[in-house]
């Protein structure tokens, strides 16, 4: 017998041994618990980590509380790049952001820049129902801006617009 079949047989035997009143109480409690879970419990589900940057250097990796995110290219004046990873369970009162600030070929060869590892712990932003994207926008001087959003692109657009080259 398979494990599932064995468990089903045990559950059926227990159900058959219960008196009628106990079956009604058990069934009612099960229905009430399922209804409570469906109607009143906060359900957030998994979250995607979306990494964007307005820095002139690429970000090779970024993570939130140990959950790996994507990478970005160096900001070209228009596109913030960015990749999506997940879904993850991102919880807690703080968000530990780890990232590797990389270099382009010219930055490495001509400017002598080298990759740099960074870590910062920020307060976890408040998450509302429907916000399934954890957005990380790397600002100049290695300052990450984090927030929950339904769409990181729309949420971060006003901030990104300040750094865009208009010509």
From TrEMBL:
The chain crosses the membrane at residues 21-40. Keywords: Membrane, Transmembrane, Transmembrane helix. It comes from the Bacteria. This is DUF3304 domain-containing protein. The lineage of its organism: Bacteria, Pseudomonadati, Pseudomonadota, Gammaproteobacteria, Enterobacterales.
